[in-house]
Write a structure and sequence with these properties.
The complex is a heterodimer of chains A (124) and B (382). By secondary structure, chain A is mainly β. Chain A is built from one helix and eight strands. Helix content of chain A is 8%, strand content 41%. Chain A has a five-stranded antiparallel beta sheet. A three-stranded antiparallel beta sheet of chain A has the order 2-1-3. The longest helix of chain A is centred in the N-terminal third of the chain and has 10 residues. Chain A is globular and about 50 Å long. Chain B has 382 residues and is of the alpha/beta class. Helices cover 33% and strands 19% of the residues of chain B. Chain B contains 13 helices and eleven strands. In chain B, helix 6 packs across helix 10. The longest helix of chain B has 15 residues. The radius of gyration of chain B is 19 Å and the shape is globular. The chains are: A mainly beta (124), B alpha/beta (382). At the A-B interface, strand 4, strand 5 and strand 6 of A face helix 5 and strand 5 of B.
């Protein structure tokens, strides 16, 4: 029934520079995290490119002892609907606020591509 | 709403704790075993009487089997669920059904952990989630912090209101000789405490302690013939909504709204009839969320509700009367200690912290990151 290998596909797309999420072939509902079927219905899912637009749904600052820098952890609600954990970069971690519009960017972290966000409208 | 449940047909007939705080030299199973034997003895029973064992170990995924071996018993049922801190309320729910159905005669629900002396910190026993791990949330604190921040944004809940929860817990702990933290705590002390994951500070977080706990359940007809005063199980219900915080359907509403409503329906009573409340306060925001979701105040009003010492000793709603996970005991999972405190309160055994005339006690458990909720309602009468 499923030809997707969710984690493997997601990572391959990211490595190609594409932030892909899934969409139900039946309901059109978008889904994140990647999986083999739509939650609730079990309907098949297809990969679609995310717009990369989102809004900060919740935010925290993980406090570290200096000199190690404190950092942001946020829940981002994607324009397509699903939420994901990520972080907002490019501004002080405590300056990230709920409701802030953000844009996705793929960065390399410890040899793996991961999706982070910048405040919308900031220079890429 | 009609909710089938063997209301009042089973009871907790033994309850014991051991080694709360620091228990050097004891393994987790030792702590659980001391508590188990004491709880059984209270009912005039021994391990050999147990045919239903409900046990989870912090790190041993087959801990239920290990503990049966330790006690030298061959149970018909071993429930080794891993719901997290709500496991124990869910055990009461399952045990009530199994006892009432006649599959088992004596249920032992037990837990022990030596993580404070063995590791010196909260031992994280869960697999990091692939889509969370790269962002290094300091779990579980960061997940609860995200929920707390959302509650503040949506309802205007303040840091000082979170502090009221911590201060109330400490004031209760000062009346409990078994509590680990009994030194005075003021709102100013709280407000000066170091941030860990905004908006949560050190004093928003539960303790890390050792401790063992156990309760024994039988059918009510047998309970009346045993040595100890029964605490009847009037309702018990569970609900799981998510695992990681990003997928919590609404960060300000927990599954307690449903587990609580079902437990009330089973018991045939509502929050107004509850005399004493134990909720799993892994973090201060939990108490506020659960008081709302369990119907003690409207959604969004939890912060204002706890102001002015309302849940502290002398306040109108006694909450976490043993001092809770914040000030009494938190050996990795706290759910069973809340059940035991509810038993002691409805039995009238709570000493200087006894709530006068307490007849109905609610004990609510929370597992994961607000993920798994389970509510138990106990009564002095069936």
């Amino acid at each position: 029934m499923s030809e997707t290998r969710p984690d493997e596909d997601f990572r391959r797309f990211l490595a190609e520079g594409r932030f892909m999420i899934q969409r139900s072939a039946e309901s059109g509902r978008h889904v994140f995290f990647p999986r083999v079927a739509e939650p609730g219905t079990g309907a098949p899912l297809e990969w679609v490119e995310a717009s990369g637009r989102g809004v900060v749904h919740a935010t925290t600052v993980v406090r570290k002892k200096p000199p190690e820098p404190s950092y942001n952890v946020a829940i981002i609600e994607l324009a397509e609907g699903p939420r994901m954990m990520s972080r907002v970069e490019g501004i002080a971690p405590e300056a990230v606020v709920i409701g802030m519009a953000v844009t996705a960017r793929i960065v390399e972290q410890e040899g793996e591509p991961v999706v982070v966000f910048d405040p919308a409208g900031s220079p890429a | 709403m009609s909710e089938r449940f063997p209301r009042g047909r089973t009871a907790i007939v033994g309850a014991a704790t051991f080694g709360q705080g620091r228990a050097p030299g004891y393994e987790a199973s030792d702590l659980a075993a001391v508590a188990s034997i004491a709880a059984l003895k209270e009912a005039g029973l021994t391990p050999a009487d147990v045919d239903g064992l409900f046990f989870c170990h912090g790190v041993d995924t087959l801990g239920g089997l290990s503990f049966a071996q330790y006690l030298g018993i061959h149970p018909k049922v071993v429930d080794n669920n891993r719901l997290g801190g709500s496991a124990f309320q869910a055990y009461v729910e399952t045990a009530a059904w199994l006892l009432d159905a006649g599959l088992i005669e004596v249920a032992l629900i037990a837990y022990g952990s030596n993580q404070a002396t063995a590791a010196g910190k909260l031992v994280n026993t869960v697999r990091p989630m692939t889509y969370e791990a790269p962002y290094r949330p300091l779990n579980p604190v960061s997940s609860y912090a995200l929920a707390a921040g959302r509650h503040m944004h949506a309802f205007g809940t303040t840091k000082a209101q979170l502090g009221e929860v911590a201060v109330a817990a400490r004031a209760w702990a000062q009346r409990n000789p078994e509590a680990f933290k009994r030194d005075p705590l003021s709102l100013d002390d709280y407000l000066g405490s170091r941030l860990v994951s905004d908006p949560l500070s050190v004093l928003d977080c539960c303790l890390v302690t050792d401790g063992g706990a156990a309760v024994v359940m039988t059918r009510a007809d047998r309970a009346r013939d045993l040595a100890a005063t029964p605490a009847y199980v009037l309702g018990a219900a569970s609900e799981t909504t998510h695992r990681e915080i990003a997928w919590m359907p609404d960060l300000t509403v927990t599954g307690a709204a449903r587990s609580g409503a079902r437990a009330y329906a089973q018991a045939g009573l509502g929050p107004a009839e509850v005399d004493v409340v134990q909720v799993y306060d892994a973090f201060t925001i939990n108490t506020i969320l659960f008081l709302e979701d369990l119907g003690f105040c409207p959604k969004g009003e939890g912060g204002r509700f706890v102001e002015g010492g309302r849940i502290a000793p002398g306040g109108e709603l006694p909450v976490n009367t043993n001092g809770g996970g914040l000030s009494c005991v938190h050996p990795g999972m706290n759910g069973l200690f809340g059940i035991i405190e509810a038993v002691r309160q409805v039995r009238g055994e709570a000493g200087k912290r006894q709530v006068a005339g307490a007849k109905v006690g609610l004990a609510h458990g929370n597992g994961g990151v607000l993920s798994s909720q389970a509510t138990v309602i106990l009564g002095a009468a069936a």
